[in-house]
Amino acid sequence: MKKPSQSSLSRLPQIERLLETDELNSWFSRLSRPLVARLAAETIEEARERIQGGEAFPGAETIVRAALKRCRETARRRIHHLINATGVMLHTNLGRAPISRTAWHSAEAVNTGFSNLEFDLQTGKRGKRKGIIPDLLSLLVGSEGALMVNNNAAGVFLILSALAKGKEVIVSRGEQVQIGGGFRIPEILAQSGAQMVEVGTTNITRLEDYTAALGADTAMVLMVHSSNFRIRGFTARPSIRELASSLPDDVLMVVDQGSGTTTERIPGEQSVSHYLNSGAHLVSFSGDKVLGGPQAGFIVGKEELIQTLARHPLNRVFRPGKTIFSLMEEALIARLNRTVPPPVEAVLNLPFAELQERGKTLLSDLPSGRARLVESTVTTGGGSAPDERFPSLSIELESAERPQGLLTALRELDPPIIGIIVDGKVQLNLATLLAEELQAVKEALNQLLSGKS
Please, which residues have CB within 8 angstroms of residue 199's CB and are 6 or more apart in sequence? Predict the structure, then answer.
């Protein structure tokens, strides 16, 4: 094995010399100087190991290029603005519902200065962290009380921990779901200290299955939103009203509604109000899905139970900060005033002529034969109406490159464009594009398909 040349090792640049180059110090604002320094050190160490393995000195320019590559790869892991052309309105991996610019700007002063997050302006003393969200949400869904936590998973866990620890919770076998990120109902129940009692079968759970399972240790019946799947065909389960009216007074009827459907009319979805009016004592749901706010979870229902949850030690663990509170207040006020349409409604109510116009706009300057307008569908996503699809239009791209390679090229644009593959072709769904993104998409596609990128 060839021994490393000491002269080659001595030619390796010092970290500080690398950081003085224009190429690397331009990354300070995007990654921070210390992180760029660490990436430069890793690059130099890699070069040292190669030389010690018998390779020749790679050259200063090669080392700089390798460090820049590390910077670019690291920067790709930052939270980016990107363009959703997947046809999934509330894409969990893409941040779910976009927050309206009006709400964002209205909440700016609260978040760039001090606020009364836990200060009572009337008494001048410490206040409670809730603002007017309980009032707004109760009006929206028709509940006695309301509580906001970090997310819906936190809401379910808080309910189980505070109201069913050491007791039995009845759950249908067909509702022992797993949603994205490994959230499994049986595991959440176990972690909360509650004991799950399974009833029924995957497709059939009758009222008698629930009532036969009731016992002295039963704390609640938990009904769970199926979120990302549907069971079709030979199925049956009691309605919330039938089940709630059959339970003893000391057994709670709790619903994990999940999607946050309130006033929207979405096929296959029942609203929070529906469950409350049908007899549910508590309903939990997400705030960043159909509701269109920032990431949060809500628990609504009987005021006495809400207060019990609010006093529980876990509520302090799960409570959001000022940014979420201020943005959610704006989102709920807009919803009650109907000044900004919810994200799902905005997409579902898009006129087909508008989609056609978007398609024509995008195709107008693209190279001939490289893209065409095709019929497609759009889905709500975000754990709502999992098997409902609505008519849409997409731009289908023609390329000699393999579809996966074209998807990668789209992701490498600035901003990245996220599409899908349908029947071996890359498609960009027009319904999930934001109106203000059309020009950026048009320019990016023209550059990509013309081979200028």
Answer: 170, 171, 172, 173, 205, 209, 210, 212, 213
Instruction: Answer whether 64's CB lies under 8 Å from 39's CB.
Output: no
Residue 419, burial from CB neighbour count under 10 angstroms (0-12, 13-18, 19+): buried
pLDDT digits (tens, 9 = 90+) for 260-291: 999 888 887 889 999 999 999 999 999 999 99
- In degrees rounded to 5, what are phi and psi of residue 450? -90, -5
* Three-class DSSP category at 372: strand
Q: Which domains does the chain have, with CATH numbers?
A: 6-75 (no CATH), 83-93+346-449 (3.90.1150.110), 101-339 (3.40.640.10)
Distance CA 107, CA 110 (A): 6
Residue 272 tokens read as 């929070």
Q: At what angle do helices 152-164 and 303-311 cross, to 10 degrees?
A: 90
Cβ atoms 431, 360 nearer than 8 A: no
66 and 20 Cβ atoms separated by less than 8 Å: no
The Cα-based distances of 50 to 15, 43, 44, 53, 141 in angstroms read 18, 11, 10, 5, 64
pTM of the complete model: 0.90
Q: At residue 63, what are phi and psi to the nearest 5 degrees?
A: -65, -40
